[in-house]
Amino acid sequence: MAKLIENLLLTDIHSAGKAIGQHQGKNIFVPFGIPGETVNVLLDRRQRGFYSGTIEDIKLASDKRIQPFCRHYGICGGCNWQHMDYQEQLRLKRQILLNALRKYKIETPEIPQVVPSDDLYFFRNKVEYAFEAIGYDGVTNEEIRNCLGYHPIEVRNRVINIEECRLQREPSRKICEAVKRIAIKNDIPFYHYPDRSGLLRNVIIRTSTTGETLAILGFTTNDPEKITMLLKQLKDEVPEISSLCCTILTDSEKGYMDGEIVNFYGTGYLSEQMGEIGFRISPKAFFQPNPKQAQKIYGKVLKYLEPKGNELVYDLYTGAGTIACFVASKVRSVIGVEGSADAIHDAGLNARLNNLQNTRFICGDVLQTFTADFVEAYGKPDVVILDPPRAGTLIEIKKTIIKAAPSKIIYVSCNPVSLAFDLTMLTNGYRVSQIQPYDMFPHTHHVETVVLLEKQ
Question: What's the CATH superfamily of 4-99?
Answer without folding.
Answer: Nucleic acid-binding proteins (2.40.50.140)
